Amino acid sequence: MTITITAFERSPDGGKGLARDLRVRWALEEVGQPYDVRPVSFVAMKTPAYRTLQPFGQIPAYTEGDLVLFESGAIVLHIAEHHEGLLPRDANGRARAITWMFAAVGTIEPPILELVTAKLIEGREPWTAQRMPLVEARIHTRLQELSNHLGDGDWLDGAFSAGDLMMVHVLQRLKPSGILDQHPSLAAYVARGEARPAYQRAFAAQLAINALP
Questions:
Q1: Is the per-residue pLDDT at 94 higher than 70?
Q2: Could you tell me if 2 and 64 are in contact, meaning their C-beta atoms sit under 8 angstroms apart?
Q3: pTM of this prediction?
C-alpha cells in the first residue's frame, strides 16, 4: 500500500524545514519506506474534502490504504511502531523513546510556540515588550532541564530514536531567535540530527517543493 502525506503547496517558512510534514518525511526516510507527497494549498486545506483527512485543516495528513492519520507525533509513532529503526527492541527502551516523543510536543514545544505567537501575531501589541522576557525565560528553563538530561550523550536515551527525531525538529524552531545557541549542547544535538542522511533527504525533498516555479 502506498503511503501518501500532505504538505504545504508553499510553506510559510519557504522550505526551511520547520513545517511539520518534515517530521513525517524524516521518519519515513529513517525506516526506508517510500512515500508520495500531495501538496495542498491554504485554500484547499480548509475545504470539507480535506477536513475528512485532517479535521483541523492542517498538514500533514497521512494515508496508507484505508488508514488515515493526522497529528505529526501520532504519525511518527505509527511509522516507528510498524518499521524497524526508530524504536528500541526492548520494551523498556521503547517506552522511554515514546516518552521523549511526548516530552518534545507536550513539554518543550508549547513555550517555543508561545514565542512564535508573541513575535508573529502579537508583536505589535503594546504589552509585547514586557511579556517577551517572561516567554523567553520559560524556554530557557526547559532547555536547561533538557540539556541537564542530555549531558555528554549524543542522544536522549542511548541510540537515536523517534524521541530524538521529534525533539530535534521541535528545537529547530528556535534557531532564528538565537536562543538555541545559548545552550551549546542542545545546538550540537540539533546539528547531529540534521547531519543524519535521512534528515538530509527529507529536508531536500521538502525544500524542492518550495523551489518550484
A1: yes
A2: yes
A3: 0.93
